[in-house]
Each structure stands twice: as C-alpha cells, then as structure tokens.
Design goal:
alpha+beta, 6 helices, 23% helix, homodimer, 263 residues
C-alpha cells in the first residue's frame, strides 16, 4: 500500500490549465475522485438541481457552484471550471457546436456548475477487492443501456434511466453490492441484477453507449445507474446553452475515492 | 413501532420449562434471537468448534457452553439447556432414538452445548424492509438444498454446504444483500444469486429439505448458507451421543435480532 499524494489532482489540473494536457482522465491521478460536469444558465439550474435530487442514483451531486462563480472550492485547491477540464463540449439547443480546451471566453455571470459523481470511484474499490472489470480487461468503455425505466422529471428535465453493466460471478455480485453500497456519492448499489429484459434491454451485446463486453456462462450482468442519464436528459431538454466535459475527459478533484466510502 | 419487552424470551422459556409448552417457536417472542442447538460430548466438541469457525456462514456460533455446564448465561437470564428447548432430538451413532421435552436425565458432566444463529433473525429484518418471504406467504418451511460445494472439514465433521432459497425481484435481491450483510452472526450475506446450476442444484421445485415455493418470472433465487449444514454434518459423523432441538423448536434467547445488526 502506498500513500496517495494529495497534490496529484492539483498537479494534473495545472497541466490541463497551463500545458494543453487534453487526454482522457481514466487512470490519471490514481485514487482521486473524478466528476461529470454540466454547466447551465441559472434559470435552468434550479430545475436541474431538483432533477438530480429526485434521481440521486444516476445523478449523485458532488458539488454545485454559486451562480457565476467558476471556482469549486469544496472539490479542491483552486479548482476553476473554466480551465481545469481537459476538453469541453458546447451545446446550443441540444446541438454540439464546439469542443474547446477551455471556456474562459464563454463564461457568464449567470452560469451554474454541477459536478456529479462517476463510476470510476467505485470501480477502483471493486478492482481492489479482486473483482475483474471486464471492460478494463478488454480495453474498452463500459457498455451502457437506455432502459424502459423513467427518471422522475423536474421542469424540462425528463427521460429514461441509463445504466452501465458489468458482468461478474454471483459471489462477486454479492461482494459488489456490499462494496458499492458504501459509495452513495457515486451511484451506490446496483439498481438491478440478472434480468435485462426487466429493464427493457433486449440484447446485452448491443449497448446504446460504450462497447459490448463478454459475459460468461457463470456470470450475471450487474447494472448500475449511470452518469450518462443526466447528460442525455440535459441534451433532450435543449437548453439554449449547456457546457459539459467531453466523454472520458472528467474533472479531476482533490478528493480521494476512499473518503467517499461510508461504513 | 412498539418496544419489545425484554422479558418475553424469559417468559416463553418459563412456559417451556414448567408448563409443557412444546410447539414450534417460529413467530414466538417476536424480535428475539432464536438459535439452533447441538450438544456433544467434550471429546468431539473441540473438532465441532473448529468446524464452525472454519465454516462461519453456515455455522455462526452464538454461544458455546463450558464443559458440563447446562447454563448459557451470555444468551439470557437463567437459560438452562436441559429444560428450555420446547422439544429435543436424541441421536445415538446418527440414529434418532427419542424426542423428549427435557433432557435433565440425560445430562452429563462431559457435555458441551453449541447454539448457532438461525435465519429467523434476518428474515425479520427482510420482512420489515418490505421484502416478501414467500415461504411465509405460502405457510410452509423455507426450501433448502444440498449443494456441490463442500464445507471445510475438521476431525470427523465434513459434508456439503446446505443452502436455503428465497425468491425475490432483482431490486429486492440488492436490498437483501445490504440488509443481511449486517447480520454476520446469523449467516450474513447470500452465498449465491441467480444460477442454481453453479451450486449443483438441478430443480428448484425439488428441495432436499423444507418445501418448494413459487418463483415468478421477474424473480431471482437468492441463496443463503443454512443452519441445516451443521446438523447434516453432525449426523453423518455419527457421534455416540448428540442432542439437538427438534426441527423448528428452537432455543429462544433474551437477545434481540436488532442488536445482531452491525452498521
């Protein structure tokens, strides 16, 4: 066991801000919490926060900024949302219009930033407990599926729950429930085990997002609420402006995954 | 919510001891821990204790008596194992030779009593969380199955793991893992979910003990290590003398199920 340097998140953010570092963040700053980012005009932010609180499993809120304030002091030292995400996506009325490396020139004093937990945190805990993450082994993105289950709407925000799927043996599925139950801040316990048809999923080899992974005869598919849910919901609400991280290019914080575990 | 009278276990034991009360204890002294009983000669007790410690999920030890001492002070006020079980079974070399209502005349100063946790404790917690116990609804015993998984042997004690099965929806299976993980003293988390063939179980409608229950299309079979495991193991070891409770006629203690929950 090695102690994780507390400054690694900060060091990576400095490279992103100053040196044009613009890669995917998976596996970077090991042990640090990474987050999904959504930035919205204030007149939509209230509804979006209500949406998140009504759907805590797909939308675990790690931080909400003050209106117009680009700093997120609860997530670490000098976290500036205008510069510290490796790559952004700019959406206007639901259409992708740009993928800049910073958003200083787009910042407005009516913008509110949301940072939502992501599955990287609990995947680390699962892997450390000896549970194979098949999509890691296969070197691909986790398979994700639109379900027949609707989220609880708030204002213009509504849509289906999106889940990620990880195959594992029944004994590991029990372990995975125990471990991820302690990670409420990052999706928590699985929403479903074993019967994809009950979620309206027809073919596990044809995910709606990410890539398919092998499921062996002695394995069950285990499903978690996924951070793609709020992204899909925001896109379908077509806000005049929305800024998100580019897929896989997360905000790296100073928080440690281990500190998100309760009990 | 009503407070459970601490004296209910004691009151029931008094009836059993003095008034010939000799029924099954399921549902009696609500909220109190009930235990499986096995009484063995001291020269076998060491091996049996080792067996229990090597197989904690099927054999959760709630109490072990001192040699020759019929009192179990850690389980409650004035608990006397010679009189306080509603009905006993006497086994000689693995053969059932009697079903007396007390064992005062059989007591010897080389006997050691084991009290092992039973699933009644966690079933109460599951039912209180809104999870239907199908065998309660159907008014029958929980279905139990011999598995292809061997216990870890100790001395003459060896044999297959026996599991009990409760059907429930995938969402409730997740909840059931969370709840029973807190009940390590009474079998703990499930040992298996969803794939009976991996345990060597061919037909869920033909249990080896207990009775079959309905499993619906939207349900998974969830399997827990079962207290019948040590009973079967002791029988097959054919000790010269062994005294157990009669099925369903458990030792009722002063402990509360709620206090067995950790976290």
């Amino acid at each position: 066991v090695t102690t994780i340097p507390a400054s690694e998140g900060w060091t990576l953010r400095q490279k992103i801000r100053n040196d044009g570092w613009a890669s995917q963040t998976s596996g970077q700053a090991y042990g640090h919490v990474q987050g999904n980012v959504a930035i919205l005009p204030a007149d939509l932010a209230d509804d979006f926060l209500r949406f998140c609180l009504r759907n805590p499993k797909p939308c675990p809120v790690l931080a909400v900024s003050d209106r117009g304030n680009p700093l997120l002091s609860t997530l670490g030292r000098d976290v500036d949302i205008r510069t510290d995400v490796p790559r952004y996506r700019i959406w206007e009325a639901g259409r992708l219009v740009g993928e800049p490396l910073d958003i200083r020139d787009l910042w407005r004093d009516d913008l509110v930033t949301f940072v939502l937990g992501c599955s990287f945190s609990f995947e680390q805990a699962l892997a450390e407990a000896g549970i194979e993450m098949r999509h890691w082994t296969q070197g691909c993105n986790v398979p994700m599926f639109l379900t027949s289950q609707q989220t609880v709407a708030a204002g213009p925000f509504a849509g289906p729950l999106v889940v990620s799927m990880r195959p594992m043996t029944p004994a590991n599925a029990v372990k995975a429930v125990q471990i991820t139950s302690r990670f409420n801040a990052v999706h928590g316990a699985p929403v479903h085990i074993g019967k994809p048809e009950m979620l309206g999923i027809r073919d596990l080899q044809r995910p709606d997002f990410g890539e398919p992974v092998e499921i062996r005869d002695d394995e069950l598919p285990v499903f978690w609420a996924c951070g793609v849910t709020p992204q899909a919901v925001v896109m379908s609400a077509r806000p005049p402006l929305c800024i998100t991280h580019a897929p896989g290019h997360m905000l790296v914080t100073d928080l440690l995954n281990a500190t998100l575990s309760v009990g």
